[in-house]
Hints:
Elements: H1 10-27, H2 38-62, H3 90-106, H4 112-138, H5 140-148
Helix pairs in contact: 1-3, 1-4, 2-3, 3-4
Amino acid sequence: MFNLEHKIPPPVIGLACAGLAWWLARAAPALALQMPGRLALVAVLASAGLALELWGLWTFRRHGTTPNPLAPGRASTVVQSGPYRFTRNPMYLGMAVQLLAWCAYLGSPLSLLALAVFVAYITRFQILPEERALRALFGEPYQRYLQRVRRWI
């Protein structure tokens, strides 16, 4: 397989997985669940996911480092404040929470497979290569951060 590391922007992966979730929900309509309060749950999840993404982006900007996920080697600092105190990847986590909101909206447990695909793909082709690049760039301080803060949650 050709090298996919840092090739496809994460929001594109998120949208592709949202499409996959929709397709999976439509492929097996008999599995659809009727959940009371579903729209409220969707609103809370979507808002929380968006807020987490924006908080992560704002924190990067405040520290003057690049938020570009396709160029981790251009990072100027290891950000450890804001949401980066409890997750190394708040923007990806925010995308995953928004995808979870979409799956809840669809009401199909089968659509959750798309969320699993998103997490697996982003971990393998985005996060692990980012961690390698940042370890090479920042050395021991970044290694200590990796040991202290979880990758997802």
